[in-house]
Amino acid sequence: MAERFQYYITGENGNYAFYQTINWPGMTFTTVKAHTIQYVNLKMHRYDGGSHPGTITCELYLADGDSKPTGSVLATGTTNGETLGTSPEWRQINFAVPYELAVAKYVLVLKSQQDDPAHPTYWRRDDAGSYATGGMVYTTDQGVSWDTQFTVDFMFEEWGLSPSATSRVIVIP
Question: Most CB atoms closer than 10 Å: which of 98, 112, 115, 166?
Fold first, then answer.
């Protein structure tokens, strides 16, 4: 059974608007023990006024020394943004293939098919966040460059299996 590892779920007081070719938000988190990530829960909603976000993609990256995404995508999951409500809700996004996390810093990056900045999708955040081992990163140029804002934290939960939960016991008669 999955267990919750890293998370930030309190103090939400704002949104970050994201859309395909303009803004991609990210949340860094640092693991304290190795485990297999299976899915994330993210608090999101769509624009109230005709927003059609299409598929929302969550990508997992390793973070570099500046807490910015680096290298190839480690895991990817999607959700149907068309079914998001206009009020904030927790949305589970399952990774297509669970990924073995080492003790390191990672980044969750969100993308939407919606290409209209007037009708974005929103990720809920705390503008005075206190998540000690991560924070907000974002790009406005499709990941060419990234900025950080560690006083802001997105609402997220990271779920998976401990190494002991994924071990198999072989009984030899």
Answer: 112
